[in-house]
Amino acid sequence: MEASMRFVFVVILVMSSCVHGQLKTGFYSSLCPRAEAIVRSTVEAHSNKDPTILAGLLRLHFHDCFVQGCDGSVLITGSSAEMSAPPNLGLRGFDVIDDAKSQLEPLCPGVVSCADILALAARDAVDSSGGPSWPVPTGRRDGRVSSASEVSNNLPSPLESVATHRQKFAAKGLDNNDLVTLVGGHTIGQTDCLFFRYRLYNFTATGNSDPTINPSFLSQLQALCPKDGDGSKRVALDKDSQTKFDVSFFKNVRDGNAVLESDQRLWGDATARTVVQNYAGSIRGLLGLRFDIEFPKAMIKMSSVEVKTGTQGEIRKVCSKFN
Fold this sequence. Notes:
The longest helix has 19 residues, at 284-302. α1 (2-17) runs parallel beside α14 (284-302). Helices cover 47% and strands 2% of the residues. The radius of gyration is 19 Å and the shape is globular. The chain has a two-stranded antiparallel ribbon. The protein is mainly alpha-helical.
């Protein structure tokens, strides 16, 4: 197994060495040599207290990249900033990024961007959940714009069709394989009853449940989320292993056990289904390994979307405020 994991790392290393724009792996190796180690130790310290924060960090990076590119704009506080838009109200992990920044700023003033801290923290979150690790190309600079009004038009919603998601991904230079692979990040984490309860009780015009839900799973979900119960109650997105980064999420999609409608819709879309089938295949080791290769490749692509480099943007002193 060790040899196969070394092979995975070499494949990913080759992938990231020819990366995107002006980002490069090891950007801080001489500018701030301890940068990546400090981010990693901060992620580990917070996840030791609360393992669910790992999924929060991965989601936070995704939400950042889809609006204004991967530039830390989601971290800005304010009534009109991205953070205050309805799709972002449940985001978590801001304190982890702030903690890492507060350690890095005295050590390397004005050097390490908040956008890079978030990209590194997302990688470390996957690694700490038993998923793959990869060399993160760095050198992003922090954006100077954060607007709540831009969020809904850019960010995929769980209520949208696969076709709409595909358009939103394509607008960021990401293809169908990237879409299905990145949705696989739902192998860790939770969602609120509020976001899927409509599937359980009044999905159709006649008030029935979503017919794509496996009947035995439907009764489990109804027990977790009663019709008039607490909408903020948290439910695992992967019913089998919510803290382990693995391919069971894709098996759930195949078997009608996805929690979010947009996740289950992947199975009803012929192009997306092919990718789901590859990851959910019965040859456990081989196809599990394939997801371990494809996920880092998709993350490297996503984390390079519309980045600011060189003299663009700024390096924030505090991640929640523009300089």
